[in-house]
Amino acid sequence: MNRHSISSLNIALLYVGTLMGAGFASGREIWQFFSVFGKYSYPAVLMVTMLFILFGLMTVKISIALDTTEIGKVIMPFAHKGMEKLLGSITAVILFLVYIVMAAAGGALFQEQFGFHRIIGGSLLMVLVLATVLGGFERISKYFRLIIPILLLIVFFVCFNIIFRDLPVSHLPVKLKISPMAPSWYTAAVIYISYNMLAGIPILANSTQRARTHPGAFLGAAAGGILLGFSAFIMNRAMLSDPGISSGSLLPILSLAGKLNPVLLWTYAALLLFAVYASASSNFYGFTTMLKDDTSKKYKIIGTAFIGFLLSLLGFGNIIAFILPLEGYCGILFLLLMTVNYIRIATGHRSVNMELTQYSEENNKHE
């Protein structure tokens, strides 16, 4: 793939595919972070949509201004190699944790829907992710261009059917288990955007540097944010139509699809597998960009993928409720730093030329 080959549509699809993993597409994340707050879930979704757009556009602007794909440089508002390396390392750990979440989701889906042990689903996902990530950014971009439009169409079709068809309500007891780490709708919204953007930043920065035009990169980031927000809105609305089923299921949209007909149920189950694969691949790719390029990198990628699979056996529900909010609190600091970085660039206090000068001065001091 040459330097200027990605369209704005492809950038939007990469943005969506990175964040619309099984936690999102199954409705589990949307329920945990938004739907549990009932009517207050709607302002939370609106807030998150605006932040998806805002931080997406900021990432594109910073990547263009500093001519970089490095997440440390995108986040850190001052040229400091040590701090940028530290931020990159912390982000790598967080992206690796998201890969663990997706591996756990794959296991949960295989166990709940197909009756196989979750080890089978997790191991299958690991193999697919490795096959994709070892092919580099080009392979991920190619696959997302094919998979994500289908994923979005099925999500919209199923959710609109749940919302607008006169389906019987289960009247099951509603189990509102609000995470102690995200106790209010606005706290949950901030945490949700912060841990998600840590996965979105590396993909958007890489996409920006390969975009056909800079305006196209901005358009792609904005369109991706709108698609993510709209998807969250209709999924939230669909789950609140029968909160008894939604609150009692690990994969609520899948359970609600079962009320429509068996074909849609199995179609949505297949979609979730694609969503798991897409998000796991993009997040794990972001993690691998932090690894040193040497002859052992391939083996490090394979080894860490296997370790992540083993950790995923802790279980999907536990990871969603506790690990993701913890990542979110870490991400808040990073997004604040990135906001300062953006302001410095927008006001002319930082540029790629300044970066080169500062790094040159740093190197001269060391010499």
From TrEMBL:
Entry superkingdom: Bacteria
InterPro entries, alphabetized: YkvI-like
Transmembrane segments: 12-34, 40-66, 86-110, 116-137, 144-164, 184-205, 217-240, 260-280, 301-320, 326-345
UniProt keyword list: Membrane, Transmembrane, Transmembrane helix
Protein name: Membrane protein YkvI
Lineage: Bacteria, Bacillati, Bacillota, Clostridia, Peptostreptococcales
